[in-house]
From TrEMBL:
Name of the molecule in the record: Carbohydrate ABC transporter permease
Residue ranges of the TM segments: 12-35, 79-98, 110-132, 144-162, 183-208, 259-278
Main location: membrane
Residue stretches making up the ABC transmembrane type-1 domain: 75-277
Originating species: Paenibacillus baimaensis
One Pfam family, short name: BPD_transp_1
Keyword hit for Transmembrane: yes
Keyword Iron carried by entry: no
Compartments, as annotated in UniProt: Cell membrane
Family annotation (InterPro entries): MetI-like, MetI-like_sf
Keyword terms: Cell membrane, Membrane, Transmembrane, Transmembrane helix, Transport
The family this protein is said to belong to: Belongs to the binding-protein-dependent transport system permease family.
Domain of life, per lineage: Bacteria
Membrane topology: Multi-pass membrane protein
Length: 293
């Protein structure tokens, strides 16, 4: 009887679930609209009409986008900085964070203080631009990778995760003859796979969504990232961003609105497809780094 009574819905429960359902619909509705418009046949598309489902399905907008030089260039640029940037960020973040856990390392306190200092104070946009310019990285895809290799927040969280690992494992490995690099590669890294998966997702999403730095450092349209191209398509409605950057097809046969929505879907698709496979490791990695012991 007590079990049945505990399952009885109260007025608060009904109100709570109703508000959650409304909030969820408000959040999901834009994605439904973007998805529906992107797959709507150009022959039956009506501007300003609400589409819950396409009246007639078509891949015309996607075929057009994937036939344009500008979209393929921006896609390849984004894939490059995402893959290379994520790999370098993982290596840089985990090696530096592991080093900061060693109290016997000379200069550790100074390095740790420098990391925390950048967490509080930021040089700003202009000094950052001057630094990138002096390094000769303007109009280079590397300008989107080197300045963003790691962050103070990432280092502190990863350092906390390393400190939660049992120190006895490293001591036993050294007794068996492992060097410091061997301990890191054979003991620490295998135990850090959940954290690596979590930060791989963090870094990959950050690089994939690179927009502001690309807008500042890249003036050559052939080196635009996907987000900059989509901004040109969606916001600069008075111009055809794909066409201006070198289209490979005729956009007059496809409504501009369906092209915009298709570009948004293509930009979201990789992250939406990868996230479910990393979700388990993502949650586990974050929790492991949150406590010690």
């Amino acid at each position: 009887m007590s079990f049945v009574a505990s399952k009885k819905m109260t007025t608060f429960d009904w109100v709570n679930y109703t508000l959650l359902a409304i909030t969820s619909f408000v959040c999901v509705f834009p994605f439904i609209y973007v998805f529906s418009v992107s797959f709507t046949d150009p022959d039956v598309y009506v501007p300003l009409k609400f589409y819950l489902f396409p009246d007639q399905w078509s891949l015309a907008a996607y075929k057009y986008l994937l036939s344009t030089n500008s979209f393929l260039n921006s896609l390849s640029n984004t894939i490059f900085i995402t893959v290379i940037g994520t790999a370098l960020s993982i290596v840089c973040s985990f090696t530096l964070a592991y080093t900061l856990t060693k109290k016997a390392m000379p200069g550790r306190n100074f390095m740790l203080s420098a990391v925390v200092f950048t967490l509080v104070f930021n040089a700003g946009i202009v000094p950052g631009y001057i630094l990138v310019k002096e390094l000769g990285l303007i109009n280079s895809l590397w300008s989107l990778i080197w300045p963003s290799l790691t962050s103070a927040w990432s280092l502190i969280v990863i350092k906390s995760f390393f400190e939660s690992l049992p120190a006895e494992l490293e001591d036993s490995a050294r007794i068996d003859g492992c060097t410091d690099i061997g301990v890191f590669l054979r003991i620490v890294i295998p135990l850090s796979m959940p954290a690596i998966a979590a930060f791989t997702l963090f870094f990959a999403v950050s690089y994939w969504n690179t927009y502001f730095n690309a807008l500042i450092y890249l003036s050559d349209s052939k080196k635009w990232t996907l987000q900059v191209l989509i901004k040109t398509l969606v916001i600069d409605s008075d111009s055809n961003g794909v066409g201006q950057a070198g289209a490979g097809g005729d956009s007059r046969a496809v409504p501009q609105e369906t092209i915009r929505m298709a570009s948004i879907m293509l930009a979201m698709a990789p992250i939406l497809l990868v996230y479910p496979f990393l979700q388990k490791h993502f949650a586990k990695g974050v929790m492991l780094g949150s406590v010690k012991g």
